[in-house]
Amino acid sequence: MATQAQRVGAGGPREQWTGQVGFILAAIGSAVGLGNIWRFPGVAYENGGGAFLIPYLVALITAGIPILFLDYAIGHRFRGAAPTAFRRLGGRWLEGLGWFQVMIAFVIGLYYTAVIAWALSYFVFSFDLRWGDDPAGFFVGEYLQVSDPGFSLEFVPAVLIPLVIVWLLALVVLGSGIAKGVQRANVIFLPLLVVAFLILVVRALFLDGAADGLNALFTPNWAALGDPNVWIAAYSQIFFSLSIAFGIMITYASYRKRRSNLTGPGLVVAFSNSSFEILAGVGVFATLGFFAFQQGVAVDQLEGLTGVGLSFITFPAIVSQMPGGPIFGILFFGSLTMAGFTSLLSVLQVVSAGFQEKFGLNPRQAAVRVGAVSALLSVLLFSTTTGLLALDVADQWANNVGIVASAVLTTVLVIWVLRKGPELRYHLNSVSTFKLGGLWIALVGVLAPVVLGYMLIQRIVSLIVDGYGDLPGWYLVAVGWGTIAVIVLGAIVLTVVRWGFDPDRFRVWPQYPPAGSGGRMPRAADAPEGTPGEGERS
């Protein structure tokens, strides 16, 4: 008799979200991550301030939401994680694109966990302001103990311990499944994140100099709209913020019931994510305004306005100077930890789901086997004295080369090579309240690959010609291009490996082109639960 894992892998009852609210919270939890807090405010400030909101909204509507819908359609129609869904969409050769996305998520999960461990450490440090009067020296020297570029096995206990804790929590959640694990974690952490960050923003607005910080962020520089790089920055921010094009939303959509609205919740997710980014901008720049006021300088004279520097150097310095600093630090780093953790779950679920379906594993088996390997590699690479440098380089290549290449390949292969645009639009319109027209196919098939292709080429040329930072070329080849090599090689190997069942014994719903329907859209009642289309053998 087949085990439950084998029955599920072979097309038995598929895990599902308990309802639309659970899916929406999980999708928002995935989208709202570290980048919302430490990337958007700085990108907006450096690219026109208030004027940046115009290209930002244009990018959201013309690329972010259309590609989000594309991911939803692929995952929901073909009922699987990225490798399964792409195989069912285009055949065995396209399965490799799914594994390419899984490998990207695998790599990101290794180092993203380390950043959450840092945030967790700083949450504890906030109680006694342990970084003292030199936050930069504390972060780089005492906390991370950063050494020269290379590969070290000299572990840093202050990083190792919280990193192990984060991995244990993540694997417990993943092993509990979609409804009892991932969904429940988002139901708990996402409201806590919003409440904590709202309290932080309200406190920041009443600090001396807060108005100057907000003026620096929102005063529009209309001339910036004539700079193509500003528009590229807007598309880049939207693209990286929405968790699209590397398997997350394909996987999440595959756990939705057949009777599920897709486009309406997609709009909720997209605009909720953007709303949180703007909220983060208000909180961050109100706080930076206070810091500038304390220093007696203008906001534009401050350093460390984005990324790791903003979160772990600039903000600790601010916390040390403000009234009630420990409470503010606890709220900030608590928010950073929760935002990172909900996003991490979605990244790891991509990997877990791919292996579950390929090898007939249940969630607990996948969490133990795949998660143990991931955790071990994460600890070896990112809890040592060379962890910060490895993390920075791997992140640059995985995001700016790996994910963007994945998006270009997906849009070109699905829309132009396989000509699946009309079928996927039909699927979305069949189950959704917000209907899509032919413009959606044009945005996904023309605008998205053109803009993203330009971003990809520009970034590759820059990395080859200019390098990255002051790091030696051999290190960039080993860690940066080595990351891409691992992703590609892993995708090839996993595509060749035999399945534990026949993934091609599957029938999609609704039928396309529709037959015998008199031209009407299929009703939900046409596909009662338990019929082919939920993943059963045909």
Essential attributes:
single chain, 538 residues, mainly alpha, 21 helices, globular, disordered N terminus, disordered C terminus, membrane
Approximate shape: globular
Percentage of helical residues?
Answer: over 70%
Order of helices and strands, N to C? HHHHHHHHHHHHHHHHHHHHH
The structure class reads: mainly alpha
Radius of gyration: 23 Å
**Tally of helical segments:** 21
Question: Main sheet?
Answer: none
Distance between the termini: 20 Å
Number of strands: 0
**Average pLDDT level:** 92
The unreliable regions are: 1-11, 528-538
Strand content: under 5%
Membrane topology: Multi-pass membrane protein
Protein name: Sodium-dependent transporter
Region (Disordered): 515-538
Main location: membrane
Short characterization:
The chain crosses the membrane at residues 21-40, 52-75, 96-125, 155-175, 187-210, 230-255, 267-293, 327-355, 367-391, 397-418, 439-461, 473-497. By secondary structure, this protein is an all-alpha fold.
Explain how this protein is built.
It is a single chain. The protein is mainly α and 538 residues long. 71% of the residues lie in helices and 0% in strands. The longest helix has 35 residues. The chain is globular, with a radius of gyration of 23 Å. The N terminus and C terminus are likely disordered.
